[in-house]
Amino acid sequence: MPHPATAVQETAGGVAPHLRRLLEFVEPDRDDVCLDVARGRGPMPAALRPQVRHLTAVDATPAPEEPGRSGRMATVEFGTGPVRITGPAGDGDRPPATATREDPRPRPASPAVKADATALPYRDDAFSLVTARFSLYTLGEPDLVLRELLRVCRSGGRLVIADLVRGNLAGPERDRIERLRDPDHPGTPSIARLTEMITSAGATIRRLDVFTVERPVEPWLASARDEASADRIREALIDEVDGGPRTGAKPRVIGGELWFTQSWAHVAAEPI
């Protein structure tokens, strides 16, 4: 009988390729004591738990900043819709198979610990592996979050950050599209800026993995602030497909659906 964690990270018989790529980059060890810090519940705890000695999952969703607000929305929703890694192994213009989807079903794992990502309730050097996947910019001030993640990571351990980055050729128009969807979007950093933040927080960069993915537009637009904003984004992307001004999102039509690109980065660092 498969391990429960295996069952929840698989769809159509395989781990989603982008999640598998991250797991291979993390290089979990059976002796690792791991901490995963996220906004809400992501797939990392279920995927990592069978591969490490112990895993602690922290839900560091910030409290609402002011009455009447539901709090800052996640800059990117990664648990809905398919994701395809582009490159030589791509599949042309065919829609990706269901195996590329993250399973949205509830994950039968231990409850996550509620905590502030800038003040984690753990002693110094408590973990050999610390991970944060697509949450660094939604948990608080990124510099403070990074310092706290490094504080609880022991000497010789690994901090692995997975997040959006700005492509080398992407201009300010790329963030304009992101801010139409999420007015609180802080801006997408370049890979140089992300690595500079990590080193300034007190770490040495050990490994990098930067790549491009394609995603369908509609699941991403489901969390737009309103339908008018979603319509403006659709219009801008369709206009670019038809030869209009560039948005930086490199949209195209795949299988009758509108898709766009994002640049993702995996960064492995070691506390100094």
Walk me through this protein's architecture.
Mean pLDDT is 82; it is low at 1-13, 66-80 and 89-108. The chain is 26% helix and 26% strand. The strands form 2 sheets. Strands 3, 4, 5, 6, 7, 8, 9, 10 and 11 form a 9-stranded mixed sheet that branches. The protein is built from 8 helices and 11 strands. The chain is elongated. It starts with a helix and ends with a strand. One of its GO terms (molecular function) is methyltransferase activity.
In short:
With 272 residues, the protein is α/β, with parallel strands linked by helices. The protein has eight helices and eleven strands. The protein has helices at 4-9, 17-26, 44-48, 142-151, 172-181, 191-200, 217-221, 227-241; strands at 10-11, 14-15, 33-38, 54-59, 84-85, 113-114, 127-133, 153-165, 203-216, 252-254, 257-271.
List keywords for this structure.
single chain; 272 residues; alpha/beta; nine-stranded mixed beta sheet; two-stranded antiparallel ribbon; disordered N terminus; Methyltransferase domain-containing protein
